[in-house]
Amino acid sequence: MALTTAPDPTRRDTGSVRPDATRRGTGRIRHGEGLAGYVFLSPWLIGLMGVTALPMLLSLYLSFTNYDILTPFSEVEWVGLANYERMFTSDPSWWHSVRVTLSFALIAVPLKLAAALGVALLLNRAWRGVGLFRGLFYLPSLLGGSVALAIVWVNMFNREGAFNSFLAVFGIQGRPWVNDPDWALETLMVLAIWQFGAPMVIFLAGLKQVPTELYEAASVDGAGRFRQFVNVTLPMLSPVIFFNLVLETINGFQGFTAAFVLSNGTGGPVDSTLMYTLNLYIAGFTDLEMGYASAMAWVFLVAIAVITAVFFGTGRFWVHYSDGEDR
Amino acid sequence: MVASTVARPVAARPQRPRSRSWLRLVVLLAIVAVVLYPLIWMIGTSFKSPQEIVNNIGLLPERFTPGNYTDGWRNFDVSFGRFFLNSAMVSLLTVIGNAVSCLLAAYAFARLRFRLRGVWFAVMIGTLLLPGHVLIVPQYILFRSLGLVGGDWPYLPLLIPQFLATEAFFVFLMVQFIRGIPRELDEAARIDGANAFGIFRHVILPLSRPALVTTAIFSFIWTWNDFFRQLVFLSSLSDYTVPVALTLFIDSTSQSAVGPMFAMSVLSLLPVFLFFVAFQRLLVEGINTSGIKG
Question: Do B225 and A225 touch (CB under 8 A)?
């Protein structure tokens, strides 16, 4: 209801009622407004300095130390690049967690987006009941990273779980999926794919923006359903696909709760679910190697920044903006 | 993908064959079954007796036994009621903190002119992409050295950031929203003698209700579901929130704990589910327009 007037990121600054009044004084700060601006901004500024910037600097410093939280700050030892060296050269579990996280993101994210797009296409017509389906499909996303959902998942895919009894109906011998190093991560992927609802809703919004004339024109040109999908739907939807891809990839890298619950905080069985963030948690809060964990956090941050930059760099080759402003 | 999605110009085409729309309905119902099965199975299992949990793997119990709920409620030294109270308090205070602090910052960004505004705005957008896992170690050290971790009121490390507008997403959402409020209203108020504070109080605040409601709902759900920060900052049993308490069941891997564990899991999802039922349209439209994820 209320949200019909909600902000639309794609539309800012366009049709808004903004006469010259806004540009008054071109950049000159109205009397008293500069102060008021900082008064209103002060909570955010304090937060930025105290809870974000200072911790980040602290973390950067600690990543060059052997800080373990038990020894006082005054006795912290500067170890130079030792933490980073250890990470890259002599910590197989770190490399392993990188591989686990990458394979999770590379497999689960595309499948999740494909499921989201497929279902969105099925729902993309006005008929009674479409709202109900949309809501039901969105529900798992909403319950999201909750512990309860992870608990259910683990129990559904253990030896006596519902999934195996489902397989038994077809005479298939199941296995203890969550306790099998070859399959534990896959069950987490299925959990992620199951939560396709949030990107689906965004796809639905994008599909509504595609002008029907394009389909009419394509069909006049003799294009069948498949060609219409490839030549009209996909290009027109590319900004939304891009948006979902960036968001879901970053989310995928940060998966923690389900991996923690499945392995009871160990990353097992046999490190098969040792997601990067779980490895970081273990280093910092189980092994109390805060210096090493800080180094891991910084590598993570740089990796996310690089991946985002790569997305935006390659995006201009395939993301198509209909207003001609290809960036 | 089978059935026809692209074809929206219904009028322009001959009516599609009935079989097609039947096919799509069947496919959709199959997906509904897959999506809902785990949830229904969870609720069903929570009402099964211990023997039935082992023997009957079906969706629903043969005999409904509410015992798991009473057992789960008192399974630990501290009653689950306490965990729910803790979670409710943290979530509600987070809602208040986010709504207030993010709206203040958003008003400044959207309406006021001050030195370095562009720079601060860019920084705010930059923090949007900052993963919480990167900050957790130094924040823990910082709050610990201030004596706030496990202190007299152990929720301060969870709440302080929320009162300082660190949830950049909500700031961004509200900036976009405020930009949609006509500037003429500001000007009219200004002519009536209002200053920046007056305009905030009498124009922006009342008109921002939809954005505040969206922020409140998602803020509540995210905090209620959050596990990572609560796991890190809460260390004594009586301070635990629901998600952290639920993991206690996993430690006790005995078969008899499965029923109570499921019962408490169902209860833990109940507030979010009720929000879902009450605000379904708003939630779905909320992610449409703002890209908020679940």
Answer: no
